[in-house]
Amino acid sequence: MKLLLSPASPYARKVWLAAAELGLQDRIEVANASASPVAGNPELSALNPLGKIPVLIREDGPALYDSRVIVDYLDGLTSRRLCPAEGEARWRVQTLHAAADGLLDAALLARYEEALRPEPLRWADWRRGQGEKIRRVLDLFEATDLKAGDDARICDIAAACALGYLDFRFAAEPWRDGRPRLAAFFEAFTRRPAWAQSDPARTS
């Protein structure tokens, strides 16, 4: 299998971390593929019409995208499940996974507003709205029993990647303040061996 990614992408980091937790990293070749919201990439667009990473190229089927689809596919390749196969536990994990990805969506939109949009065209109220989404998800995670051990689920992986992205791009906005349980979860999760292994830049 071949995983197309960008080293700075938190969605790609989530996929690579999931692969590492599942023991699949040695079966996946990693290749950098730049992606921009304003510039197309013919290679990516041929595989994913949205032109977004990550994309997983398989030998036995069409390419897979987006990150949630890819991790669900990888989850079926081993006996170590990152998401329960059925029942209420599955929907709880999937809903928390969606919340983590939604936090990332809002953070990326805020990042684009600040880094890509010309300053005279920036919309302060819109940027503030993205920040409110981020804060609501952070508060949800503070009240949630996230797992940082060997029983970590895909929602925990996604949450850790989202928090790592906030540290990377929004260090001046301290998400740890008033959220001691979430801060403790993140500290514990980053001590897992797979966390360091999951850095896409390590393989570039």
Describe the structure in your own words:
By secondary structure, the chain is mainly α. The protein has two domains: 2-81 and 196-203, Glutaredoxin, CATH 3.40.30.10; 87-193, Up-down Bundle (Glutathione S-transferase Yfyf (Class Pi), Chain A, domain 2). Helices cover 52% and strands 5% of the residues. Helix 1 (10-21) links the parallel strand 1 (2-5) and strand 2 (29-32). Helix 1 runs antiparallel to helix 6 (154-169) and helix 4 runs antiparallel to helix 5 (124-142). It is globular and about 50 Å long. The model has no long low-confidence stretch (mean pLDDT 92).
Residues in helices, as a percent range: 40-55%
Output the CATH class name of the largest domain. Answer: Mainly Alpha
* Total DSSP E strands: 3
Strand order in the sheet with the most strands: 2-1-3
SSE string: EHEHEHHHHHH
Estimate the global geometry from the Cα principal axes.
globular
CATH architecture of the largest domain: Up-down Bundle
Average pLDDT, to the nearest integer?
92
Number of domains: 2
Low-pLDDT segments, ≥5 res: none
Q: So what's the oligomer here? A: single chain
Structural class by sheet pairing and helices: mainly alpha
Please indicate the percent range of residues in DSSP E strands (runs of 2 or more).
5-15%
